[in-house]
């Protein structure tokens, strides 16, 4: 009966999809391709009037299989994507974008550019307006490829030095790419979102032609506009731009302060700490100590000698002057329960001594001040250093012993 046919078809379709999923999870791409073929054929034989709408599923599954199948070729992939473009008008531009990404990954830049140009000229009634966001992405990626062509021409001209600019045709072609890239890149970064690559390329174009005010405005908008999602890279790009322009330390510190609030473990925290330590303002030096302590809370910094050197230097200065010991105490209070095992175990002392004696020196100095002269890490490293007759380790031991009365004040 008609009802039985519908029930059986639904069961067989679900079973086939289950087999496809299983084959893909097991990376059995040939088996998955065979089941997908059966799935498509069964859909073609279905005479029920219920809308099935399987085009997106076939597109997603088929793309994944073709990307991994050992016998698939670019020709087959291109043919498949062209078929998918005609299957669903609502997904036309998304399919185009995925096709372009695949072409780019395989080094077929000209083909990718051609596909973007064709997609940009696509029109289909109301769907054109509905897919406005996808169309902007199409234009943005075309601008990105125009930027690549511009950069290539720029490098050719720069390699030939000042005399290279005598070739007006090459220079004019470069400016043509600049205009096309700038228009499309400028449009996409107006939309709230994460557009790191597009922003970097657009700023590079502006900087090359000396439009530093526009570049600064773009980066400030990208970093501080509340409509955009919080993005650490936005503040990194702004900081790097300000540094290239030789801006004041106040501006650099302001950019890095927000980066610190978002990602306290970012590699630029070393630069941030260095600038803060050199400041004459007590508030900024206090922040510098907070920044370096916070960075060393993360496992990725455990063996970063620059970070330990920064902390050791600032802690040593405070101990010698005996001013602001409360700064150290405040930072240490929230860490004294877990930092000893995390940073200052006897096991780590042995390993650090064997692998990097300079690192073990900086850590031992910090450990001796924070945990006292009986700290396992400090005792092991200072003993090994004195045993090896290394002067700096003898000086280290004397320094910690001399300032041992500071430890009770820090530990509370």
Could you characterize what this model shows?
- This protein is extended.
- It is an all-alpha fold and 412 residues long.
- The protein has helices spanning 2-25, 29-44, 55-68, 74-87, 92-105, 109-120, 127-130, 132-159, 168-188, 196-208, 212-224, 232-244, 249-262, 269-277, 282-295, 305-321, 325-333, 339-343, 346-355, 357-371, 376-387, 391-402, 406-411.
- This is TAF1A polymerase.
- Pfam families: TAF1_subA.
- It comes from Oxyruncus cristatus (sharpbill).
- One of its GO terms (biological process) is transcription by RNA polymerase I.
Summarize the structure.
This protein has helices at 2-25, 29-44, 55-68, 74-87, 92-105, 109-120, 127-130, 132-159, 168-188, 196-208, 212-224, 232-244, 249-262, 269-277, 282-295, 305-321, 325-333, 339-343, 346-355, 357-371, 376-387, 391-402, 406-411. The chain is an all-alpha fold.
